[in-house]
User: What shape does this take?
Amino acid sequence: MRSGMARKLRMLTAGSLCAAALAAAGAGAAEADRGAALGMETCELVVPGTPLSTVGQCGWLEVPENPAEPDGRRIDIRVARVPARGRVTEPDPLVFFAGGPGQAATETWPVVAYALRKVNENRDILLVDQRGTGQSNALKCPEIELAEALAADWDALARSTQECLDSLDGDPRFYTTTIAMHDIDAARAALGYEKVNLYGGSYGTRAAQVYLRLFPDRVRTIVLDGVVPQTLALGSEHAAKLDQSIYRVLAACDEDPDCGAAFPDTGRKLGALAERLEQNPAEVSLEHPTSGEPLTFTFDRDVLASSLRFLSYSSDTQAMLPLLIHEAHEERRYDRLASQMLIAASGLQQMISQGMELSVSCAEDFPWFPQRPEPNTYLMGELMTRAVEIQCGIWPRGDVPAGFHEPVSADVPVLLLSGELDPVTPPEYGDEVALHFPQAMHLVAPGQGHIVTTRGCVGDLVSQFIIEAGFAALDTACLAQMRATPYFISLTGPKP
Assistant: This one.
């Protein structure tokens, strides 16, 4: 069986986003000594492939790769601190958990740094590249030529997975979430923090919940944006949730006077387009939108589904979907849809450590995948589940503690955030997790996709929650003013 995106899914299967002052004035002796044990020095934290960056202090924490063998092989964990900018520093920093799995905290924090600037006014930000990501012995796979990625089949996926495994400097069995959370706590202890606040985005919400389960007495507050329930085998519901999100976006187009007039009945057209490409794939030639590299590849149903998946994460790219689907259906033109997919996929590819992603997914998720109905009628079908099945049949699996997939519960204030149109972690996931926390508030951002902290007033609400450690003064009325990005009526954007 051929799959237009099978090779790319080796890199992106499971998961499926200004400067800061260096030192706080008026800090005491303890603050001056903070980080000395880790040899921290001034450093720049950069989002790969973007101009986004911030300044911090970076050092190294040496830990055993296998916790059961403390005298065995050791690896270096990258630790960064963005010191509070104000004259007074609160004792409890914000610990930031990146998404993925496979993203690094130091490479992701600059994306949300401005939205959470009020937190950083009087609190340090603690960033630890989870083992296997960033500069913490990253489990990076060899790069693949894009043309090859788009043309590969399941046999090629198996070969590339084995090649990735053979290239790694590390044992994937020891790159699980649970082991990594012990690294995070060791960094906390080394920096002298007693209590911390947790922020996790997407997969980072799993990491934050695992940390909370392991070290409940060390957590003051927790924020979960794009919530992953512990009961969920991450990736098992991607096809269903993608359909749910996309068809809601297209239904809203039908109800919008301008979008509905320009692109009527887009949901039906998408179904017809998928059937046509399944029977008669198209050959597409274009220049890569960022590199200028000439590309020719087969655009089939799998590539269509993967394109829509990448473009459904953000309200900004969701706004293009009716136009791009209409163009592909009516004009049989696929190059602009493919170009937008390549922009989104290339950016994510740079930020993901694929070996770490597989180490987490194959140990913590794949064994709990439910039996899938045959045939699968979702747009994405079994594209991702089949890819994970092949990869995890090759990848070594670490141990998962008993009760790992049981809900986490703790008596700490918890703020949960969801995007109304999130295709990966929809609002019902946040509702499910909130049930297990006595002090919980779940906010849904209207018209938004995956990860909402940087959208509208959400960052200010998160900051206020962390500062006050509660919801009493939280004015959420601003959420009612949020809207989805207006639909693109032409290539120039929304109707004036």
About this structure: The domain at 18-142+168-233+403-481 is CATH 3.40.50.1820 (Rossmann fold). The chain has 19 helices and eleven strands.
